[in-house]
Design a protein that fits this description.
6 strands, six-stranded antiparallel beta sheet, single chain, alpha+beta
């Protein structure tokens, strides 16, 4: 039996999202993590129904962002941005906001980039990680 000594290259966020567009029945979650905080989550819209959020397209994407005392500056930037008026907020979730988009790679990547740059001030040098989870 041969054991591989080379680690398999993991997929990028874009590759996971591309696969998800092609497989709209698959439920998943991508957590984008920076400084040990999950700043952004990407899921299917249908997973938000259990929280009482009206969805546009069950197979579409949802991006959620959350804030606490550790990222108060990011929160203040968000409140002043045009993204704030496009978000869905439920009081029961505190400082958590949701965005909905269609099952389109271009739409979800565009929205993700806009959030990363205008709210969290990501640059090409920003170090972050992510965790992909497939749900049943």
């Amino acid at each position: 039996m041969m054991i591989s000594i080379f680690k398999k290259k993991s997929k990028t966020i874009e590759e996971h999202l591309k696969d998800s567009v092609q497989k709209p029945k698959v439920n998943f979650q991508i957590d984008i993590i920076r400084n040990s905080l999950v700043e952004i989550q990407i899921t299917r819209q249908r997973l938000l129904k259990k929280f009482g959020i009206n969805i546009n397209s069950p197979e579409g994407f949802s991006i959620s962002i959350t804030f606490d005392q550790k990222n108060e500056e990011d929160y203040q930037r968000f409140l002043k941005s045009d993204l704030y008026s496009k978000s869905i907020h439920l009081e029961k979730f505190g400082k958590a906001y949701f965005f909905l988009c269609e099952n389109s790679l271009q739409d979800v990547l565009g929205l993700l980039n806009q959030i990363q740059v205008s709210v969290y001030e990501y640059t090409k040098d920003t170090a972050y990680s992510y965790r992909y989870t497939k749900h049943k």
